[in-house]
Design brief:
rod-shaped, mainly alpha
Length: 220
């Protein structure tokens, strides 16, 4: 480590070179975090970019006109989850309310877990990164104090080694905390978005069920 060599300019790179274990561990954690954030963001923005209200309005017109087949074909235009959820109800339109409800509920139960997938892991990764950083700091301080206890060092050398060693150790804490902050911000944003998506799925399920059951009643 820097202190053990009696010099060094400090800096993140120097810290990695001289005591890489915990900083590299947190680099791995940060890579996992970035991967999850990118994958989840792409999933939410890509798979759920359909305006469910506008799409349902189109389906409602077709169903009201008795064009169930055209409504199903409209759902087949893409594999977006909202479209497949509506299709699950439409394919049972000529059956009873219980069967329609069962089909919608089954499809909804397939879609919802994917929306929340891996988002909760960000919270755990925030804690892991923080703890790795703290362990790295403690380890760095132990090594620093052990080094300055060596015989034959001048007071100036000891002070310089102590300063460099503490700075090096603190990089572990700073890096771990930085990862944790990113994890928490991403968790809040992605979790909020996933709740909105789940609410939209549930609302769409209810709209489709009401449309198919109410429109099938005499007088509607």
């Amino acid at each position: 480590m820097l202190a053990a060599e009696g010099g060094g300019e400090g800096g993140m790179w120097e810290a990695i070179k001289h005591n890489p274990t915990f900083l590299i561990a947190n680099l791995v954690v940060s890579a996992v975090v970035v991967t999850i954030i990118i994958e989840r963001t792409a999933f939410q923005l890509g798979r759920y970019r359909v305006n469910s209200k506008e799409f349902f309005a189109q389906v409602k017109k077709l169903v009201a006109a008795g064009n169930i087949d055209r409504a199903i074909k409209l759902c087949d235009a893409s594999d977006y989850p909202i479209l497949q959820l509506v299709k699950a109800g439409l394919t049972h339109a000529n059956k009873g309310a219980d069967e329609i409800d069962a089909a919608l509920s089954e499809k909804l139960s397939e879609l919802k877990p994917a929306v929340e997938k891996r988002i909760g892991a960000l919270w755990s990764l925030a804690n892991i990164a923080t703890l790795i950083g703290l362990i790295g700091t403690v380890s760095g301080l132990i090594n620093t104090f052990a080094s300055i206890a060596a015989q034959g060092l001048s007071q100036a050398d000891k002070q310089r080694m102590l300063s460099n060693g503490i700075a090096e150790a603190m990089y572990n804490t700073a890096f771990g905390l930085a990862i944790a902050v990113v994890c928490m911000i991403a968790h809040v944003l992605l979790h909020t978005r996933s709740k909105n998506i789940q609410h939209d799925l549930e609302s769409t399920t209810e709209r489709v069920f009401n449309l198919l059951t109410i429109s099938s009643k005499p007088g509607y």
